[in-house]
Structures are given as C-alpha cells and as structure tokens.
Design brief:
Shape: globular
Order of helices and strands: HHHHHHHHHHHHH
Oligomer: single chain
Helix content: over 70%
C-alpha cells in the first residue's frame, strides 16, 4: 500500500528530489557514451534521431504501463485532447530532442549541463507574459540575470579572454531548453483535464515514434546492440520515466517551490558525472564560477514567498486530502 505520508517528510523529499536530479544529470554523459557504444559518429544526425527515438518510445511505454497499473485511464480522451497530445509530443519530445541530441554531440557534458539549465530561466520569463499570477518579481529577475551570466562564463576559454561558443553544440542545447520551456507552458492546459503521467507518457511515446521515423527515413542505423549498449539504452529510458514519476509524486504532496528548488542540483550532477565518466575537466575556474552562478540563479527563481507557500499547501492538502 502506497504511503503518501513519506512523501511529505522533509528528509524523504530531499532524498527523492536529489535522486531525480542525479538521474537527469546523468543523461549528459550517458548520451555521449551511447554514441560511442552504438558507433554513432558526430555527423550522423539520422542515427542520433533513431537513438533518441528508441529511448523515448521505451520511456513512454513504461510510463503509460505504470499509469495503467495505478488505475489511470490511458485510452479515455477526446479527439481534441489527442490532437493536443500529438502537438505536445512533436514539440516537447521530437523538436526539443532534435536540437538536444545534436547539441550534446557537439559540446562537452559539463557545458551541456550548464547550458540546458537555461530552461528554468526561460520558463520564468515566458510565464511572466502568459500568466497573470506568475509575474517576474525582483528576486526572479535577479536570479535570471545571475543564471545567464553563469552561462556566459562557461563559454570563455581557459585564458578567460576569448569567448568560445559553438552554435551547433552550445546553441542547440540552449534552443532545446527554450523549446522545453514553451512545451511546459503548452502542456499546462492539458493537465486540467488529463493526468500528468498519462500526458507525459503519450508525449514521450508519440515524439519518440516520430524521431524513429525521421531516423529511418534519413538512413539512420542503431544496430550495434551489445549487452553494454542495450543496458545503457534501457537506463536512459528508465531515467526519464522513473525520475518523472517520482518528481510528480513529490509535487502532488508538497509545495511546488519546496520541490523545484532542488533543480539547482541537476547541472552540478551533470558536470561532475561528465568529469567522471567522460574525463572532462570540471575544476577550471570558469566551470566552477558558472556552476555557482547558475545554481544561485535557479535557487532564486524558485524562491516562493511565505504567504504563497501557505496558500498552495492548503490547496494541495484539500485537493489530495493529505
């Protein structure tokens, strides 16, 4: 029997949120290692699409299966909602990961993890213009500025005199982060009538299928399946499905700000794991400065005023009968 009380325990929340960020951070070196294990060259874009497609189709099936087993109705939705799910899958999975997988292949894992953290700041800025109750406060604005300064800092070379920015690598990761922020806002409307796990499951599955088709049509090949490469692919799929499921359980029973503040750990884990598994240098001054600035920025934009926390907690407790 599921004990929701555990998910309201502060120490348990911290442990699970940290685990989720660790899983998401591990995606950066895992993808790059996957390219090596499946013999996918840097310029072989079609095979990258196929690799990404396999991952998300598996992840989508896992999430939808979990949703079905937990009693959620995964086949009950209107034609209009299905068209919205299809659109979300194209934006959130297909389009985002076209840029992300190409970008990751053309930059380092350390830089990629820092660049991708711009999604937090893009989300805050976009929300300001779309939602009346989510305006850009002074604290959030300062947090965004500090975070973007961190992103700029990581692009300086070791001499800290020349700016080094690869658009196909660094730029594509930032574009992927922007697309993710847009997709989150688009999906917000769907959550009013559908379960979040079901929405994400279909988004991953539909987007993954399109990536597979794009890869196949373009002549991509992902056929070097060994025990090691197969394990990595399954790990990447589980990474997406497990981390998402746990994160949303935390959001269900806790204040959103209390959970989202842990997002600052993702670029830290991404950088550290890239250094460990890819042999990349993390202890450069620019990397340390960038990580510190990005983490401070993410923490600031996720800071929620006390009175808002109280109201949100009361709303969640009433809705979920905690």
């Amino acid at each position: 029997m599921f004990d929701h009380k555990k998910f309201t325990n502060a120490k348990f929340v911290a442990a699970i949120a940290t685990l989720c960020c660790l899983l998401w951070g591990s995606a950066y070196p895992a993808i790059k290692i996957g390219y090596i294990l499946f013999n996918i060259n840097t310029n072989d874009i079609a095979s990258k699409f196929l690799f990404a497609g396999y991952r998300f189709v598996i992840a989508g099936v896992i999430l939808l299966t979990l949703a079905q087993l937990s009693g959620k109705r995964i086949f009950s939705f209107s034609k209009r909602n299905f068209s919205r799910l299809f659109t979300l899958g194209v934006i959130q999975t297909t389009l985002q990961y076209i840029f992300f997988y190409i970008g990751v292949a053309n930059t380092t894992g350390v830089k990629g993890s820092v660049m991708n953290s711009t999604a937090v700041f893009f989300g805050v800025i976009l929300a300001h213009y779309i939602y009346k109750d989510d305006k850009l406060t002074k604290t959030k604005a300062i947090g965004c500025m500090i975070g973007f300064i961190g992103v700029i800092a990581v692009n300086f070379n070791s001499e800290l005199l020349r700016f080094s920015f690869n658009f196909i690598g660094d730029g594509f990761v930032i574009i992927a982060a922007l697309i993710f922020s847009v997709a989150v806002i688009y999906s917000k409307k769907l959550t009013e009538s559908m379960d979040v796990m079901v929405i994400t499951g279909y988004s991953l599955f539909i987007g993954g299928i399109i990536l597979v088709l794009l890869g196949e049509v373009s002549g991509g090949q992902v056929d070097h399946f060994t025990l090691k490469s197969s394990f990595l692919l399954i790990y990447l799929a589980l990474l997406s499905s497990i981390a998402f499921s746990l994160w949303n359980l935390l959001l269900k029973y806790n204040n959103v700000g209390l959970v989202s503040v842990y997002n600052f750990l993702t670029p830290i884990f991404g950088s550290v794991l890239s250094a460990i598994f890819l042999g990349e240098t993390i202890f450069e001054l620019k990397n340390i400065v960038a990580l510190i600035l990005v983490c401070i920025g993410i923490w600031m934009v996720n800071a929620v005023e006390k009175n808002v926390n109280v109201l949100l907690n009361e709303k969640l407790k009433k809705e979920f009968k905690v």
